[in-house]
Amino acid sequence: MNDLSFYIHIPYCIKRCGYCDFNTYTPSELREGASLEVVSGDYIDAVLREIDLAAQSGPGSVPTIFFGGGTPSLLKPQDLGRVITAIKERWEVTANCEITLEANPDSVDAQKLREFIEAGFNRVSFGMQSAVPHVLKVLDRTHQPENVARAVQGARDAGFESVSVDLIYGTPGESLDDWQLSVETALNLSVDHISAYALIVESGTKLASSIKRGEISMPDDDLMADMYLLIDERAESAGMQWYELSNWAKPGHESRHNIAYWENANWWGAGPGAHSHIDGVRWSNIKHPNAYKSSLLEGKSIVLQKEILTQSQLQDEAIMLSIRMRKGIALERLTPAQIARIQGYCASGHLDKAQWDLGALQLTAEGRLIADRIVRELVV
Asked: What are the pLDDT digits (tens) for 264-291?
C-alpha cells in the first residue's frame, strides 16, 4: 500500500440541525441528562484502537488527515492531537500533510484555535452555511452570522495555513438576494476555499417534516440553478477557481483530502459509521457510538458491511467521480459508443469545446448543472 488518507469521525453535536441526516448525536440522545464530557470521555481511546487495526494493513505514507462530524471542534484539541500523534507514530506522514478540522464558529475562540495548531492541525473548515439570519433559523444553525468573521480571523491569527467555509444554497425561503449576500460575505472573509452545496432534504429530518406539513416549501430548480451560477461567477472573479463541482479555491488551497475521495484513492475512515476504501475493497463501521466503543474495547469487529468492487464498478465510479473535477475525463478512457452519446453536449454548451478538442471531457458551468444526466449517458 502506498498513500493512505485518514478520515476521523467525531459523532457529537450540541444540537442537531434541522436538515442534518449525518451520523451524529447530541449528548442527551446517547444518555439522558449526560454532558458532552461524559458521553465522549472514552471515545478517543476507542478511535486509537481502530488506528491500531489500520496499522495492520501495512506501511505507507499519509498525505491527508481530516476530522469531520458532527462537530470535531467541540472536543479538546489535546484529545484530537492524540489521534494525530498515533498516526504519525505508525506511518510516514508527508512533510506537507494536510490536517483539517471541521469547526462550528461558536465552538472555538482564539485560545482554542491556537491549541488546535499546537495539536498539529494546519487547515480549518468552518460551517458558515449562510450570512442571513432567517436562513440560518430554517436550518436550525446555532451560530450568529457575525461569529464566522471572528472565527476566521482567529484562525488566521493562530497560524492556520488554509481556511475554508461551507455554504448551503436552496434553503426554503432563501431568495437569490439572500444567497448573493451570503456569497459576497464569504468572499470578503480572509478565506482560501469555499464549498457550496445544494440543500438536500433527507427523509426523517425536522426540515423534511416541516416541508411535508406545508409549513415551508423548497425553491424551484431555476432558482437553484441561478444560485449555483452566481457563486461560480463571483468566486472566479475573486480569484477562486472551481476545481470540483461544489468547490472553489485559491491556487494551492484545494482540499487534497477530498480530492483523494474523488480520485478513489485509499483512505481509512475511523469512527462510528465511517467508510473506508483500500485497493478496491470498501467497508463501513457500525453506526452507534456506544456500540462502536464497546466493540473495540471488547475486541469485536466494528465492520457493518464490506464490498469488493468489480472492475465494472470501479470504471463506472471513476467516471462518476472524475466528471466532477475540473480536469475532467480523458477521452481516451471512453469507448467510441460513450463518446458518440455525449458529443452533442459540446454543441449545447454543456461541455467545454476547447478542452474536448484537446482530448478531455470538461463540464462548463451550465454542464455542471446537469452533471448527473451526462453521467447517466456514460454509464448506461
From this structure: 999 999 999 999 999 999 999 999 999 9
Q: What is the pLDDT of residue 140?
A: 85
pLDDT-flagged residues of the chain (< 70): 1, 18-19, 202, 208
Instruction: Compute φ and ψ for 284, nearest 5 degrees.
Output: -135, 155
CA-to-CA separations, 170 to 221, 330, 364, in angstroms, rounded: 9, 33, 21
Question: Distance between CA 248 and CA 69 in Å, rounded?
Answer: 22
Is-contact 168 139, C-beta < 8 A? yes
Instruction: Dump pLDDT digits (tens) for 292-302.
Output: 999 998 999 99
- The residue type of 178 is D
Place of cell 476507542: 46
Rounded Cα distance, 116 and 126, in Å: 14
As a whole number of angstroms, the distance between CA 73 and CA 271 comes to 16
Tell me the domain boundaries of the chain. Answer: 5-262, 330-378
Name the CATH superfamily for 5-262: Aldolase class I (3.20.20.70)
| Amino acid at site 375 | V
